[in-house]
Amino acid sequence: MAVSANKLELLQIADAVAREKLIDKDIVIGAMADAIQKAAKSRYGQETNVRADINAKTGEIKLQRLMEVVEEVENPDNQIAFEEARAKNPDAQFGDFIAEPLPPLDFGRIAAQSAKQVIVQKVREAERDKQYEEFKDRVGEIVNGTVKRVEYGNVIVDLGRGEGIIRRDELIPREMYRYGDRVRAYIYDVRREQRGPQIFLSRTHPQFMAKLFQMEVPEIYDGIIEIKSVARDPGSRAKIAVISNDSSIDPVGACVGMRGSRVQAVVGELQGEKIDIIPWQPDAASFIVNALQPAQVVKVVLDEDAERIEVVVPDEQLSLAIGRRGQNVRLASQLTGWDIDILTEDEESARRQKEFTERTQLFMDALDVDEMVGQVLASEGFSSIEEVAFVDSEEVSSIEGFDEETAEEIQARAREHLDRIEAENDAKRKELGVADEIREVPGVTTAMMVALGKDDIKSLEDFAGCAVDDLVGWRERVDGETKIYEGTFTPFGTTRAEAEEMVLSARLAVGWITEEDLAAEYAEEGEEGAEGEAAEAPATEGAPA
Asked: CA quadruple 367, 370, 376, 381: dihedral positive or negative?
């Protein structure tokens, strides 16, 4: 069958548009069919169910009107009676569609303009989908592009098959770009939006520096050296923690390169940003000491539950440890994920003395003893009345200067003090209207009940409806700083696991869950824990001693 000139031209146009826009030819032909269909509807009426088909090989256009087979015709434009449909197709059933051919369509000026808009819109949508599909899997990669324009400080980058944007806050400070400049950036997000895919680029993202090192250091690319964490103050200073999976290769030396060639290439790309390359350690204390370089650390005190560490440095090293405007300690905190408090030796000594004095006064007031006895208890490591009251009596009587009678008397006074506090708390609890049944929840004390009452948690149902964060608080990391929000049980040192156990027990007591639900949840937690340990095992084995 010969193809007419018009039909051939139609196929050539579809092929040219598909090649220019880098989209599938079938999408362009489909857009043309939709445009013809829309023009046909405006010619035959909007209620008419018109279907247009274009043969991708011959370019032949076929127009048809689809009529639904019904028992009683209400709209003759798109419905056909059952008997009439049977006459045209003996196999027709109710709900089927009968296709009736329509004569070729002569496009008027308005119809042609409308068809053009449909084709342009469909091709643009296909082009956007193609861009999105191409870039959505490239998040985390570094791309090179050319500056297309600068709008209000935001840099629009031509990436060849798409456009990316570097927002003003994602540019390194004091960095200026003009039209035509070459730029290298990190893709940190790709979103599908109404006006097309938005490709967000960054030059300040910590992973931008990590990817630059991967490009410059073959050992990182090959997986011999691993980048554990990165912290940046863009344009000023950065810290990067590395570890080698091969004991014969020094991770820091490999990243620095011969005469600093490798690190200098990264520094040049980051506009002179100073980079500290730090060996990563599995031991948190050692890692944090390394992260605070070049400052020397005398002593560290870890609080693993709060992920907080106190670092003691010599007086003359304080400004070096903190850094200009707190830069060094802030980057070290971001790098390690720990909150770091820096103290001088004098400050630490003064704080210890203050704690000792406070504990001494606590024992003097609660146990009605003189200062010397209070100091002895504090110096022996007792920090609360509960410890004194419930510790083995031999531990108290073994203190130099104490005998069994003295130990018994001190512990008796400690228990009396706790009983008095308990009675006061119980009176407060009743005054606040906290239900007795909350006391039945394992782990809940009278003092906790008072705290619950102050937060308007007064019934067992109220307690069962609490989230764990409401009880123990939560932490948020904003701009490298950790913000701590306290919960109802924060003063009691309740752990997240303990709070979760209490809430589950309360929900069991009020009938929101069953014993079977509880057992299933514990079993699930056990499986997750086992999977986590199995996943961590290879990393632990690969870590250097």
From this structure: positive
Going by C-alpha positions, the residue among 488, 414, 495, 501 that lies closest to residue 454 is: 488
CB 60 within 8 A of CB 7: yes
* Secondary structure of residue 270 in the 3-state scheme: coil
pLDDT of residue 537: 42
What are the φ and ψ backbone dihedral angles of 227, each rounded to 5 degrees?
Answer: -90, 115
Angle at 542 (CA atoms; ends 539, 266), nearest 5 degrees? 85
Cβ neighbours of residue 209 closer than 8 Å, sequence gap 6 or more: 230, 232, 238, 240, 266, 270, 273, 275
Packing angle of the helix pair 261-269, 206-216 (nearest 10 deg): 140
Distances (CA, A) of 120 to 28, 29, 109, 126, 545: 9, 12, 17, 10, 64
Distance from C-alpha of 297 to C-alpha of 312, rounded to nearest angstrom: 6
Please write the tens of the pLDDT for every residue from 117-139.
Answer: 666 776 677 777 777 777 888 88
Measured N-to-C along each axis, helices 446-454 and 404-432 cross at an angle, to the nearest 10 degrees, of 30
Other C-beta atoms lying within 10 Å of the C-beta of residue 288:
22
For tokens 């008027």, the residue is 108
In whole angstroms, give the CA distance from residue 448 to residue 491: 9
Q: Are 362 and 385 in contact (CB under 8 A)?
A: yes
How many other C-beta atoms can be found within 10 angstroms of the C-beta atom of residue 139?
13
Q: Is a pLDDT exceeding 80 seen at residue 459?
A: yes
Supply 374's token pair.
């209070």
Question: Which residues, listed in sequence order, are joined to residue 274 by a DSSP beta bridge?
Answer: 237
The angle subtended at Cα 309 by Cα 292 and Cα 530, nearest 5°, is 110
Q: How far apart are the first and last CA of the chain?
A: 79
Count of positions (residues) in the chain = 545
Tally Cβ neighbours within 10 Å of residue 310: 16
Pair 544, 247: CB distance under 8 Å:
yes
DSSP string, 338-399: SEEEEEEHHHHHHHHHHHHHHHHHHHHHHHT--HHHHHHHHHTT--SHHHHHHS-HHHHHTS
- pLDDT higher than 90, residue 213: yes
Pick left, alpha or beta for residue 337 (phi over 0 → left; psi -120 to 50 → alpha; otherwise beta): left
Q: Parallel, antiparallel, or unpaired: how do β-strands 79-81 and 299-303 relate?
A: unpaired
Q: Under a CB-based contact definition with an 8 Å cutoff, are residues 373 and 363 in contact?
A: yes
Q: What is the DSSP letter of 75?
A: -
Q: Which tokens in the block code for residue 502?
A: 């209490």
Most confident of 72-81, 101-110, 352-361: 352-361
d(CA 214, CA 226): 9
Cα distances (angstroms) measured from residue 352 to each of 123, 312, 373: 73, 12, 19
Joined together, the tokens standing for residue 271 give 């506009």
Cα distances from 129 to residues 35, 94, 137, 163, 164, in angstroms, run 20, 39, 13, 14, 15
